[in-house]
Amino acid sequence: MINSHYAWQLQPVADEKVRHDLSSQLHVSPTMAQLLANRGLKEADAAQAFLQPDLQTVHDSHQLHDMDKAVERIEQAIAANEKITVYGDYDADGITSTAVMYEALNEIGANVDYYIPDRFKDGYGPNADAYQRIITAGTKLIITVDNGVSGKDVIDNAMVQGVDVVVTDHHELPRELPNAVAIVHPRYPGSNYPFPDLSGVGVAFKVVWALQDEFPEEMLDLLAIGEIADVVSVTDENRALIGAGIQLLRQGMRPGIHALLQAAGVNEAQLTSTDIGFTIAPRLNALGRIADANAGVELLTTVDEQTGSRLAQQVEAANQKRRELVDQIMGEASAQAAHALDQPVLLLVGHNWHQGVLGIVASRIMDQTGKPTIVASANDGSEVAKASGRSIAGFNLFDALDPHRDLLTTFGGHPAACGLSFELSKTDELRAALLAEAQKQQFDSHKQIPLVVDAQLRAGDVNEQLYQEIQKLGPFGPGNEEPIFEFNDVQPSDVRTMGKNNDHLKFSLNGQVTVVAFNQGKLAPILEDQGGQVDLVAKLSVNEWQGKRTVQLLLTDIRVRGTVILDQRTSHLTANHFGQAGFYVVEDTRLRENIAPHVGDGKALSIDQAATTDFAGKAVTVVDCPKSLAAFTKIFEKDSASPALVRLLLFENNSVYLAGLPTRDDFAAIYRFLARQANIQWPGQRTAVSRYLRINEVRLNLMINVFSEVGFVTISNGVLNLAKNTQKADLKQTDHYQAQLARYQAEQTLLYSNAGALAKWVLQCLKED
């Protein structure tokens, strides 16, 4: 059994009349009608309006707090030819915000440049040294985009020096705000702006609109990238703005974006919000994580194709480097996490991990373990670790860390994510504080997170028509999530891994549709030969390769009902085989003693101990190959529920099956040899006898033991001789032969049958028990 990561919550099937009316009046499939009903759109007129978002619904920019003040000061600077600096941020929202403001001011004829802070030297938001350099260079007006509200001291100091600052931001408002000329913010206290969920680029776009006094439609493509990258709500005006921006992106008007999509292998004409979120946004973010984010602004604003191509290659290289860094760190971080799974919150501390990708690693570990995760790293010579945290529903990361600022050097964030630093000497105290806060919040790390599932489908329902219908519900994001579908009792086939490190998974669903699962390569051996016991939830997507377009499924979650049989048979045991929690059944006493220190949170058992242990819902690893099939079945003979997983290592370094069982002719040959030779040193001359008779030592040793058991030979003081006055005996009924036969049969079934036959045999054992 493999439990699903999420608690699937299937939406109730809409009233039949509602589905029929929507389907007939809008000419959509019953599935599409269900999806509309799930969104509360049960009348055709409301559904039609939703499917055709209108820019006329976008709110007036002048409703934003301090907008008129901001426009007035910017217009004064342009008229006086004062130097203006746009002060941005190094993530995708900050880069697009800077591009929108810079491009608009440049087109108006302003004396303008921009500054993107360095993640490591300047940090997030207004930086005192950076501001001073900007002021020294002659700037008279600083316009912040996607930052500013948390920079009171730095901004106030600039104002004192006679340099005005206009703040445009969307982040959480602190208690004390800067004394700026204007603070344009959609959630400013007392503001009448009707929609609070603009991102940084959304606010910058609104300023440009107010400044130009006409709607800047040509910048909607940049807005779409920034808003999707910042994962803001795709409702209200954002839905119309992002939708129009995607339409503009599909036209390929910006050489840099066009080249970036080409390099990434994305069909520009069919671009979706998912492509932006998983292709454009990570690449722009990669610049700020490991390179120079200024290149991102140039990429977005250039009108030269050669420059666009060069910058796209630069961005692609940064993204590839980011991937490599994440892969490197994930190996170490995952190993740490595996030894801390008893903790409700994970704090993983590394050495010289690249600090630009810690947030990505934290998110990956959180997805793997289902636990809130903080990933920290200290560089050589530093006693302070920088960290990024990610959390799940049910555990407020900000509230957990806020009372413990005495343990932290820096800290900031919100319930789901944070950035912090702390002295390495306080690591244990911080872990204890996180544990206490988890208890205080009554956080249960084992509780599944709810996942809304829109409808149930069969593999045969997945096609291009349904995919195109679903796209009409977009753009997707928070508040308008992409539909997720449930597929039950499916038969995975053609299971294989993908990627450089076999991290990803691909398989066929009932031979009708392909499923792709990122970062789930470890499931490959589990999904093989599992029969019809697999359920999954997934989203529809499109794969385009060499001009061929195929609709596929992207896995969201999976569960395997019944016991999972994991075939990991090996002839070489290492410590890596024993890092998982669970039970380890080892027949050989010495081997059991040797592996006991390596099983961590697991427990090493003999077969007799296993026979009385309740494995219900647990993981069981059979380490060495039992000496009989009866011994194997004894492991699971207790009257209890089946284990969730049976992992088969079945180590054997002296195979009886490969040696074979002795034949009647073999016994005769040995008997004749002993009749001619007396006083053989045993076992000293065993190898020589084996070579002379051309009978391997395993069979030879068995035959001598059989002869000894029936009295055909004597062994005294290490000397072997044929006995006198022997009685006729059935050699194959001796204890030694029967034991070897049992071992031979066990190896034949357990070691040398194919994976499917072995899984079937083990499952049958579990059913019989």
TrEMBL record:
Domain RecJ OB, chain residue ranges per copy:
453-557
Q: Where is the Single-stranded-DNA-specific exonuclease RecJ C-terminal domain?
A: 565-762
Q: Start and end of every DHHA1 domain?
A: 343-437
Limits of the DDH domain = 83-226
- UniProt GO BP: DNA recombination; DNA repair
Question: Which key words tag this protein in UniProt?
Answer: Exonuclease, Hydrolase, Nuclease
Record's NCBIfam families? recJ (TIGR00644)
What family does the entry list? Belongs to the RecJ family.
What is the name of the protein in this document?
Answer: Single-stranded-DNA-specific exonuclease RecJ
Q: What is the lineage of its organism?
A: Bacteria, Bacillati, Bacillota, Bacilli, Lactobacillales
